[in-house]
Amino acid sequence: MMNKKIILLSFLLFFVFASTAQNLPKREFRGAWIHTVGNQQFKTMHTDSVKEMFRKTLDIFERAGVNAVIFQVRPQADAFYISDLEPWSRFIAGEQGKAPDPLWDPLQFMIEESHKRGMELHAWCNPYRVTSNDKEQLHPDHLYFKKPEIFKRYGTQLYFDPGEPESVAHTVKVIADMVSRYDLDAVHFDDYFYPYPIAFEEFHDDASFVKYAAFQGFEYWQKGDWRRNNVTTLIKALNDTIKSLKPWVRFGISPFGIHRNLKDTPDGSGSKTNGLSNFDQLFADVPLWVKNGWIDYNVPQIYWKIGHPAADYKTLIEWWNNSNYGDHLYIGQNISTFTEPDVDNPNKTQFEAKMKLVRELPNVHGNVWWSGWRLSQNPDGFADSLALKYQAVPALIPAYTRLDTISPGAVSKMSFNRGNLIWQGPVSKDPMQQARFYAVYKFPEGVKIDIADSKYLVKIVSKPELSIEKSEGKNKKYSIVITTIDRCWNESTPSKPLKIKY
Question: What pTM was estimated for this model as a whole?
Answer without folding.
Answer: 0.94
